[in-house]
Every structure is written in C-alpha cells, then in structure tokens.
C-alpha cells in the first residue's frame, strides 16, 4: 500500500459487516479521508462474509445466500450507516433515482408479523404474532435508547394486557400463593404505581446491602432487613405451580389460554429477575454469566413456559445451540434479555425489515461502490494466512497473505449487472482474472484451498494500522502468536464459541398459499380472520430447518426463463458439529453431501406439516419444486440450493453464558496498531447480528481515529465510578466512606461552559457574609472568573435508584464563582466555589437542591436548541446565549487548554443550609471520561441575573486557556451528609497546594 503524503495506511482484513463499517467510518468525512489511506483485503471474489450472497448466472440469476437474513427494526446503527450509504450512492451519481432499489426504503421493506410453530400434541400449529407499525423510521430520530428501567416499564405495561387476556380466558383473577398476603400478580402489575414499585425493588436491594454492611460491623441490621425482605417478597409474587396445575388440562385445547399463560409466565419472571438481580441499576451484563433459560427458571418461570416453542424460537433466531446440539441451549441471560427487549420495545417502523434482493446486492454492493468512489482500495483474492508480532510483542509487524488470483487490470471489478442492479456473482468473473479459467471449480472462500502465492505486508512499509475483521472462528489459526503473547487474547479464543449453520432455498411452482398455509393460520388463529398472510416468517419448526421465510418478493429481481418459479422459500438452522472439525475440501464435500441428504429428507417428511398441499394422492409432490431441467421425483432437489457453513470464519458467533467477560472491545486488542471489528467483539449487543457487527465497526474506527463516532446503545446504564486524584484523598462520592460511597446524586449533562472575567468588586458583591474572593491566576488582575453553565440535565437521581424516565430531564442555568474562601479561616481552610444563583425548569429538582444542598435554586422558563440557550424569569431576561462549534469533538485529554477550567471545576461547593450552617459538597464532572468540543459563545446577560448586564463575546477553548466549550459527561454529587469530609479534604488539598514542592531549580 503506497502512503499518500502524511496519510496513515489502514489495512482492513476481511470484508464482512464489521470490517466494511470500519472502512466506511474511516472515510466518512473529508477530514478522515485526508488522514487515512484504507485498503480492504478480502479472500475470494466478494464482500459480505456471513452476509454474502451471489447470483447464479446458470440458474435464472437466482440469489444464493449464505443463510436467511432479516434486519430488525431496532438496528439503529446499522440503518443509520446503510441509509447514509444509499444517500451517498445517489449524491455521487452512482445510482440513478429511477434505477432498481435506488433508495434504502426500496431496498428494505417492513414486516410486522411472524409465526411461532407450536408443536401441540401431534399438530404443528402456527401462532401468529403481530406487532403494530410505528410512525418512526429506523436510523433516524432520538439516539437515546430506553434504559433497563424504561424497558422494564414497557414490559410491565405489556404484561398487564397479557394478564387481562389470561384472566379473561381463566374467568377469574390470577393469584399467587394462597398464604402470601402480598401475592397477587396484579399488585405488581397494576395497583401500585409502576415507578414506585420498581424503585422499591431497587431500594430493597440497596437496603439489604446496607443491612449486610451494618451486620458485618456488628451493628443492628434486623429492622432494615425486614423492610427489605418484605419489599422483595412483594415483588416476588408469582403465577405459582399451583395455578399452573389447575390450568394444565386446558392448555392443549385452548390456544389463547396457553399462549397468554406462556407470555405472562415468562414476562413476570423476566421482570422479577431484572429487579432482583439489579439489572435496572447495573445493566444487563450483570446476569450474562447465567444461561437465559436457567435464569428465567431461577426467577419463577415454569419449565412449561421456558420449554415452549415461543421461547425456543428465541434460540432459533440466534442459533443458540452450542455445537449445534438442539438439546443444549447456550445464551447468556443478559445478552438475550437485552436483545429481546430492545427488539420488542425499541423497533422503529416495523419489527423486521426484509431485503428486496440478495444481502450482497442490497448491502455490500452499495458499500463497495461508495467506498471505491471515496478512494478505498479493494484487494480481492487476498487470503490472510497469519499475523506476526514485533519483537517486543506490542505491534502487528507482518501480515501473511496468500494471493489467490491476479486481476487483469489494476483492480478486480467484482460486480455484475442483473436487471439493472449491481450484484455479486456466485463465483468469480473468471475472464477478469489472469489465467482465470484455471481457477474454475476451486473454492476460493475456503481457507484450505491451497492455490496462490504467499507474500507479506509489513508495518511501516505497507500499513500503519490494522483493522481485523475476520471472524473469530478463523482466529485460532491466524493469530497463534497473539494468543501466545496475550492471555486475554487466548481466553477470548477459548471462551467465545461458534456454531455451524446450514441453509436451504426452494424455488416452487406454486405459492405457500396454494399449498394450504392460510388454512393452517386461520385454524389456529381465529383472530386472523382470513386477513392477509403477507410473506410469512416462521420459526421454531421441526429441525434441522427450524426457520422458514417466504421470499416470493425476490422473484422480480431474479431472471428466470419461462416457466418461471411462482415462489421462493428460505430455510435456515444451526447445524450439528461434524464428528471432526472440517479442515479440508474432502470433509467439506462430505458435509455438503450430508446436508443435501438431510434437506431432502426434511422436505419430504416434515415440510408437508407446514404446507399440507405438498402431499398428493400419490405421495409427495416433487413436481411442485421448480426445475428448469424438469427432472423427475426427488431428482428435482438438485435444482434447489443447499449450503453448509462449516468453514471456520463462516461459523455463527454465539453468546454463551459466561463468555461476555472474555470478549475484547474494538480498541482493546492489547496490540498497539490492531483494532477489532466483528460481531465477536464486546460491542454493546454482543450477539451474532448485523447490528452488533456495525457497532463494532464504528467502535474500531473510533478507537483508531479518536474521531467521535456516535454508537447508539453501547451501554445500558451510566457508569458511576469516579476516579480518585492521585496522592490525596478524593473529594468525589466514590472516595467517601460507606454508606456515602453508595448513596449520592448522579446524572448526565450536556452543557456549555463559559467563563466571564468580571470586575472583582462586582463579583465580590455576590458573595454572602463570611466568604471572600481568594487569589486566582486565571483572569487578568482586577477581574475574577465567573463560570456560567448552560446545561441539559438527564437521568438525575440518587445513586441507588434506577435511571428515571427521559421526561424528567430538565434544563439548568448555573452561575458559579470559583476561588472563594472563608474570611474566618477557622471555618475551614479550603478553596471553594459559591453558587449565587441556579435556575431550573423543573420543580422537584429545585426543592431537592434547596432542601438537601442549600443551593439557591429558582424556577425559570428555559428554551434550548443545539446552539442557543435562553432563560427568562417572569418578564425579565436572565440570559440569552448562542454557541458556535469551533473544532472537533475530543476527550478532555485532547485539550491542554482545559487546564484552567479543570482548576475551577475541581473546587468543592460551599453553601448555606436551610438552618444557616455552612455545608459542602463536591460535584465531580467526570472529566476523565467526558467528551469536549470547543465553541465560541455570544452571551447576553440580562439585568435579572445579578451579574453586570451586557453582551459578552467569548472565545472558544480552541483559542483560549479559559475558553468556552461544550461538555457531555456523567457526573456525581456527594451526599449532603458527607459535608464534613468534603470540608476537611478541601482543607487538606489547600494546605497540600500551599506547601513548596521540589521542582526545577532556578539558577
Ligand atoms: C446463517 C446465518 C443467518 C444469519 N441471519 C441473520 C439475520 O437474520 N439477521 C442478522 O442481523 N444477522 C444474521 N446473521 C448474523 C450476521 O450474518 C453476522 O452477525 C454478520 O454478518 C457478522 O459480520 P462480521 O463482519 O462480524 O463477520 P463476517 O461476516 O464473518 O466477516 C468476516 C470477513 O472476513 C473474511 N475472511 C475470513 N477469513 C479470511 C481470510 N483468511 N482472509 C481474508 N478474509 C477473510 C470473510 O470473507 C468476511 O468478508 C446470520 C448469520 C448466519 C451464519
């Protein structure tokens, strides 16, 4: 790779969703393109990896997929990137508006219904599940996802509805144990206000922790424990086994009763578990060491509900059967419950979206075209063989590659035209390769295919940074040196498991509607009432192909000669591991042979249960399979497509319990120039899906470039661990003694800081009796800095309560005078800040601020946009400020000019309590983890604010040591009862600062 002047060379290894997203992000802005030269190294002839598809020119240009793919409506990151790519495809003139699938919403169509195939007695009964379409569109709008508490709230709302259905079918209310005075589920779901019940749950856990700590210190803990236990018991009411035994005889015959029971039982167990295990406070990862079915059982789900096809369908969706053993489930509870709740409650538009051509055509061809046009280089037919470390084991020094084929021109042109749509072919375009004919019949996507010549890329000569986008199944072989040098790398390879999959595609001479499918639906879903059956997606069906999707919508994009097929059906499943891992072409051919045999047997024996019309008076109707060669009987299976995904990188990535802790994040490879992209990383979703791979790609690009790519939904909850300043005890809540270290205020803030250098006398006049201005060095003599913060406060709450709903967010205008001290030093020796006024637009926080912290909070009308903040008190304008970004977003460490502001923000607050006592607290802005952007400000201060009125043009942090900036951060505020510690620590800091320290000697 040639280095263009000053550019860093990035080698992207692999071309799946993760790798391509990283390449996309690294070239997404002019600034990024000026910094990076990106080259993608991909084995074989196409991008896509597990999402690759190809057009078979010998069979009606049919689409041949790696396996069935649908996109969920909650794939916020994936849709954002994809939509952006389609827009750029148009703006770069790469796709005309009238071309096929020119827009993203032509390429992805909503799907709001699916079916669970219930095996009841001897029947397979389709269970129709409908979701309501929403007005929103995926990939746009609010990037903030609901917190675990909010997801829980939505689940409880839904459960109420399910409970009503259940009680309606039962003819009486559902109760828990007879002897449980607090028992009825209704109490949990209905009577008590939701938030208070949930907070009670969280409080109960907190109270138990405190009780435990008191007991350890030999102090009485009994009463606290009783209160906590009672609260928890109240939440632990359940649909008991006793109730289950009563209704069991009716479950087989009454579809509605059975389905409502299963949903209520699973739903209440999940709600209870989330409360009991502190998920609403700490996020879903805390339960990921437990297998999801076991976790639900632990929290009261019945084995009937957990083993039900509904819940098994969740495993089918993520191939969650380690080693392909259908009797063994393996899915961490945290990953599973997060995924399910996000899927159900955060989808936009539709629950699912179906691609309107092959995934390669709809996703990877547009990416390829845009990236190529941006200047990314694609090296197809380059198989990575191994990665080698530098002598100090800190960097990737060499990348071993096998050049499988040589293009005739400078670069291989990989796409072909099918009905006006750029597509990937199902095999290389041999005529575009030197000696291409000699390659016919070889599998250039198999790592064991020996053809090609070996060569190497070298650090500093061919690349500077590496994005590893090859999937984890291949990494044990490719990264042996890394595993030997890094225990975390080895642990990741040991713990993150993968599974084989297989796929079947049928082209039919009739549609499933002709084959009796609608009658099955109506029979078991009377509410469907002959309504449209859409293009069904069905899961939980009989193995070894548990999932079916009707794909008839693809027919117009294939190019069949007459007689053309009338419909298309895709099937997919995990595949049991072979007796020995597949390592060569012979074993792969044997696996394909057994896959074909299994497909034929399944089509003949099981599929007629879904489509009764497949059986005629003379047995199985093979003539219903489309075959251009018109073979007879089961021979027609040869015209269908069967695929076994047995090569290491093709294996689906699982999220088995206990593995999450061993996943590495994109920027955490442990090697200085190596970044990780793929669904196997720790990315926030941590499951094998397009969204996880996209998130990881963005994270890899962010870690590599330090550019501020937003990744929606990376974390469930705020992290609240404030760092201690080295050397001295910290002021922050985390440094407080127990229980104050566990009970403090916290929240998130998005606000602008500006620092007005105002006349000393005017500033001094704002101080209360007993405080005076201390010496400061940040603004010119005769002036004193006054900090003004224009903030949006989010998720503000006591630390032991879960994040409140977004509707409780508020705006706040804070004026702070730093560098103040007690006139009477015996009152305390520290340097503080004094807040002469704070204005908020939410009453509850005004009250808590005044009562607990002694802060002079008032209510004002505040309006805020992305560049303006205006506060008005009655008719009096307090402040009207506009902000103008002046540079890139970065972390606090990126801005040395932040030093002055840091000094001001590190000073604890002095306030007067309601009783007139001095009271101290510390607001930790979490600068170490915050995001900062320099801004210019125009601030008009009105007469009502108390500061000298006028217009202030404030320089930005990019140009001034006390310049204006915008800050996104998570903060903590110490407990008001922790005041004495703050005072003494502040005094210790002041005397430490006053002491002469060894430093450079002046001659
Ligand atoms: C059958 C099946 C069905 C699925 N269905 C869905 C679905 O409906 N919805 C959903 O969201 N997700 C689905 N997934 C998951 C989804 O496909 C993956 O999460 C996603 O494609 C993973 O992308 P990735 O970039 O992490 O890895 P991969 O797609 O595996 O990409 C790895 C890349 O590295 C390349 N590579 C491998 N070895 C080498 C080498 N030695 N040298 C050079 N290049 C190499 C590969 O060719 C590929 O380009 C499904 C997966 C499977 C297997």
Ligands in the structure?
flavin-adenine dinucleotide
Task: Please give the alpha-carbon distance between the first and last residues.
Answer: 53 Å
Average pLDDT, all residues: 88
Low-confidence stretches: 176-200, 234-239, 719-728, 995-1003
Individual helix count: 27
Could you tell me the strand content as a percent range?
A: 15-25%
Q: Provide the gyration radius in Å.
A: 32 Å
Major sheet summary line = 16 strands, mixed
Q: Portion of residues in helices? A: 25-40%
The beta-strand count equals 41
Quick one: overall form?
globular
Q: Strand pairing plus helix content: what structural class?
A: alpha+beta
Descriptive report:
- With 1003 residues, the chain is an alpha+beta fold.
- It contains 27 helices and 41 strands.
- The strands form eight sheets. The chain has a 16-stranded mixed sheet that branches. Strands 7, 8, 17, 18, 19, 20, 23 and 24 form an eight-stranded mixed sheet that branches. The protein has a five-stranded parallel sheet with strand order 10-2-1-16-25.
- Strand 21 and strand 22 form a beta hairpin.
- Flavin-adenine dinucleotide binds next to helix 1, strand 11, strand 17 and helix 23.
Short structural summary:
By secondary structure, this protein is an alpha+beta fold.
Keywords:
disordered C terminus, 1003 residues, binds flavin-adenine dinucleotide, alpha+beta, 27 helices
Write the layout of secondary structure elements.
Blueprint lengths: L7 E6 L3 H10 L3 H6 E6 L11 E4 L5 E4 L5 E2 L3 H16 L12 H4 E4 L1 E8 L2 E8 L17 H23 L14 H7 L2 H23 L5 H14 L5 H11 L3 H22 L2 H4 L9 H7 L4 H4 L2 H9 L15 H13 L6 E4 L3 H16 L2 E3 L2 E8 L6 E8 L12 E3 L2 E3 L29 E6 L6 E4 L6 H4 L1 H6 L1 H9 L2 E11 L8 H8 L12 E3 L7 E4 L16 E9 L9 H21 L1 H4 L4 E2 L2 E2 L20 E5 L6 E2 L20 E3 L13 H16 L39 E15 H5 L6 E3 L9 E16 L11 E13 L9 E9 L2 H11 L3 E3 L1 E4 L3 E6 L2 E10 L4 E2 L7 H7 L3 E4 L5 E4 L1 E2 L6 E11 L8 E5 L10 E9 L5 H16 L9
């Amino acid at each position: 790779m040639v280095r263009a002047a000053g550019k860093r060379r990035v080698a992207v290894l692999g071309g799946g969703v993760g790798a391509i997203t990283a390449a996309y992000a690294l070239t997404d802005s002019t600034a990024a393109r000026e910094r990076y030269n990106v080259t993608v190294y991909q084995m074989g002839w196409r991008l896509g990896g597990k999402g690759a598809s190809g057009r078979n020119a010998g069979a009606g240009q049919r689409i041949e997929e790696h396996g069935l793919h649908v996109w969920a409506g909650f794939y916020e990151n994936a849709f954002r990137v994809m939509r952006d790519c389609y827009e750029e495809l148009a703006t770069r003139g790469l796709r005309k508006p009238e071309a096929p699938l020119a827009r993203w919403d032509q390429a992805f169509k909503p799907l709001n219904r699916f079916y669970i195939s219930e095996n009841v007695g001897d029947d397979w009964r389709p269970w129709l599940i409908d979701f309501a379409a929403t007005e929103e569109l995926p990939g746009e709008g609010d990037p903030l996802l609901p917190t675990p508490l909010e997801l829980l709230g939505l689940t409880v709302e839904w459960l109420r509805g399910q409970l009503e259905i259940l009680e309606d079918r039962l003819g009486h209310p559902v109760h828990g144990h007879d002897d449980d005075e607090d028992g009825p589920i209704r109490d949990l779901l209905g009577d008590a206000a939701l938030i208070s019940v949930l907070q009670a749950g969280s409080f109960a856990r907190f109270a138990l922790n405190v009780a435990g700590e008191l007991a350890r210190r030999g102090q009485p803990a009994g009463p606290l424990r009783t209160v906590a236990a009672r609260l928890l018991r109240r939440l632990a009411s359940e649909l008991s086994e006793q109730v289950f035994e009563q209704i069991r005889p009716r479950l087989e015959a009454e579809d509605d009763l059975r389905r409502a029971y299963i949903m209520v039982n699973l739903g209440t167990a999940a709600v209870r578990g989330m409360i009991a295990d502190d998920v609403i406070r700490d996020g879903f990862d805390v339960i990921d060491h437990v297998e999801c079915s076991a976790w639900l059982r632990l929290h009261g789900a019945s084995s009937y509900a957990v083993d039900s096809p509904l819940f098994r369908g969740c495993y089918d969706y993520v191939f969650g059967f380690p080693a392909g053993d259908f009797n063994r489930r393996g899915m961490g509870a945290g990953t599973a419950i997060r995924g399910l709740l996000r899927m159900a409650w955060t989808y936009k538009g539709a629950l699912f979206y179906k691609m309107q051509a092959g995934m390669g055509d709809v996703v990877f061809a547009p990416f390829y075209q845009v990236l190529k046009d941006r200047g990314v280089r694609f090296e197809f037919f380059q198989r990575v063989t191994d990665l080698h470390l530098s002598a100090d084991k800190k960097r990737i020094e060499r990348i071993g590659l096998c050049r499988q084929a040589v293009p005739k021109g400078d670069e291989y042109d990989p796409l072909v035209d099918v009905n006006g749509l750029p597509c990937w072919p199902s095999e290389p375009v041999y005529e575009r390769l030197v000696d291409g004919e000699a390659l016919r019949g070889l599998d250039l996507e198999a790592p064991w295919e020996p053809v090609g010549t070996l060569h190497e890329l070298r650090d500093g000569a061919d690349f500077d940074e590496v994005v590893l986008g090859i999937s984890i199944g291949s990494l044990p072989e490719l990264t042996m040196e890394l595993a030997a040098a890094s225990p975390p790398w080895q642990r990741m390879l040991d713990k993150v498991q993968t599974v084989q999959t297989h796929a079947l595609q049928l082209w039919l001479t009739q549609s499933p509607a002709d084959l009796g499918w609608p009658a099955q639906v109506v029979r078991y879903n009377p509410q469907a009432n002959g309504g449209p059956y859409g293009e069904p997606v069905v899961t939980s069906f009989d193995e070894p192909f548990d999932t079916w999707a009707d794909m008839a919508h693809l027919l117009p994009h294939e190019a069949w000669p007459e007689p053309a097929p009338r419909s298309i059906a895709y099937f997919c499943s995990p595949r049991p591991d072979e007796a020995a891992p597949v390592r060569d072409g012979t074993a792969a051919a044997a696996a394909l042979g057994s896959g074909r045999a299994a497909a034929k047997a399944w089509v003949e024996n099981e599929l007629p249960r879904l489509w009764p019309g497949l059986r005629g008076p003379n047995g199985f109707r093979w003539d219903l399979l489309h075959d251009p060669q018109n073979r007879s009987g089961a021979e027609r299976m040869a015209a269908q497509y069967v695929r076994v995904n047995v090569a290491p990188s093709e294996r689906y990535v699982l999220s088995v319990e206990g593995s999450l802790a061993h996943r590495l994040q994109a920027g955490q490879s442990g090697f200085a120039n190596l970044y990780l992209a793929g669904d196997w990383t720790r990315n926030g979703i941590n499951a094998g899906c397009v969204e996880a791979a996209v998130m990881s790609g963005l994270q890899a690009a962010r870690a590599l470039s330090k550019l501020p790519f937003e990744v929606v939904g990376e974390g469930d909850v705020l992290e609240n661990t404030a760092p201690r300043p080295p050397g001295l005890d910290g002021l922050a809540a985390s440094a407080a003694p127990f229980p104050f270290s566990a009970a403090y205020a916290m929240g998130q803030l998005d606000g602008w800081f500006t620092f007005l250098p105002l006349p000393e006398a005017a500033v001094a006049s704002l101080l209360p009796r007993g405080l005076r201005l201390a010496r400061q060095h940040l603004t010119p003599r005769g002036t004193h800095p006054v900090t003004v913060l224009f903030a949006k406060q989010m998720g503000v709450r006591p630390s032991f309560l879960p994040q409140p709903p977004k509707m409780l967010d508020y705006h706040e205008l804070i004026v702070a005078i730093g560098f103040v001290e007690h006139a009477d030093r015996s009152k305390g020796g520290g340097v503080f800040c004094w807040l002469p006024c704070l204005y908020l637009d939410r009453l509850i926080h005004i009250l808590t601020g005044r009562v607990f912290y002694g802060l002079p909070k008032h209510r004002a009308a505040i309006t805020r946009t992305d560049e303006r903040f205006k506060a008005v008190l009655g008719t009096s304008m307090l402040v009207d400020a506009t902000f103008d970004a002046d540079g890139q977003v970065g972390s606090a460490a990126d801005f040395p000019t932040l030093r002055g502001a840091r000094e001001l923000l590190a000073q604890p607050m002095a306030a007067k309590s309601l009783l007139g006592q001095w009271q101290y607290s510390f607001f930790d802005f979490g600068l170490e983890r915050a995001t900062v952007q320099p801004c210019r400000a125009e601030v008009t201060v009105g007469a009502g604010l108390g500061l000298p009125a006028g217009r202030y043009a404030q320089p930005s942090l990019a140009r001034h040591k006390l310049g204006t900036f915008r800050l996104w951060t998570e903060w903590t505020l110490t407990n008001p009862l922790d005041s004495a510690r703050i005072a003494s620590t502040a005094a210790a800091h002041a005397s430490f600062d006053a002491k002469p320290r060894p430093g450079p000697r002046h001659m």
